[in-house]
Amino acid sequence: MExxxxxxxxxxADPLHLNRIRQVRSQRMWRWITEPALNGMGNxxxxxxxxxxxxxxxxxxxxxxxxxxxxxxxxLDPASHSAIEAAIxxxxxxxxxxxxxxxxxxxxxxxxxxxPPQHLxxxxxxxxxxxxxxxxxxxxxxxxYLRIVLAVDSFALEGVPPEVAAVYTGLVHVLHLSLxxxxxxxxxxxxxxxxxxxxxxxxxxxxxxxxxxxxGVALAWAGAEPQNARLLYTTREFxxxxxxxxxxxxxxxxxxxxxVVAFLLAEGSADSxxxxxxxxxxxxxxxxxxxxxxxxxHDVVNAFCEEFQREVPYRERLVETVxxxxxxxxxxxxxxxxRHRRADGKVYVSLPEGLHGSPATGLKRxxxxxxxxxxxxxxxxLRTFARGFVKRGFPEDRTS
Length: 400
Hints:
Helix content: 55-70%
Largest sheet: 9 strands, mixed
Order of helices and strands: HHHHHEHEHEHHEHHHHHHEEEEEH
Low-confidence stretches: 8-16
Number of domains: 2
Mean pLDDT: 86
């Protein structure tokens, strides 16, 4: 992922701004002393908040959201309130089916940086906190707070002053789930002490532990900009899946990914989501050159182009790893989608879905019909579930 971020950065970032960030981070004093010290200040603040227990954390989060958003919580529409009631009902159903409170995952969209109003992403998280508080009243175990997966690398925080970003990173690492997709930029102290476990390769283990806690986890299903979702998730996961299927060595997978990302960026497809006929032909040729059978290429490329159009990707790899592991350990999973609309700058809660069973013995999906009735159906595999969940929870609205 780190190398893909670098490719995107080279094509999209303001060169002067990128150079300024690199100059600050490359200074020996900053990298080895100043930044770790500021991370430590954030760590201490986070531990201080956690010392106040659940009431202290809840109060701090409410204060922080108020400072960041500058507006009271948005009123939700009637359909969103119905979806919240459905989530409470489904959580209880899954508790009965699985014998324990389900693992709760809030899947959110990710507004663009230019989307009005400002701080719409934090409004999504604030609404997730509110929904989680209602759910926690139904949980018969020990109550806990919602943890958010937050990127803390320079790619995610490039518009934030480095000093503020360093304190924020330390705070997030203690209170929530920090994700550093560029861990090679960390110093030894950050990697082993101050930000230990934040590297992208280790974040999955922290996510698994956190999602099994009563409070659950909130995770942005997409990137902040369309090209992030289309390149970091859709394209990277597509090439990774093809690489595993063809048993390509890592170096060949990276070379293939780099070539695909380069021509998608160069022709603007990452912004629009539209793959031209010429690009389709180039992609088909690359896949055949890599060893994919000619009769498979057409369908494989069509499936990729269909997902590439979406601003919210399917995240099949996440579902096949994290959620599959939870199911194999006998846990049920409750997924609650929260999305925004650019047309009105508001947050909406979509109908929740649940999973119970295991990939080996058979999976059951719990979902609500348009009329509001809860029913179950068998799921053939988790990739199929991921696609259906995203299509229902995050319908494409290109006018919004």
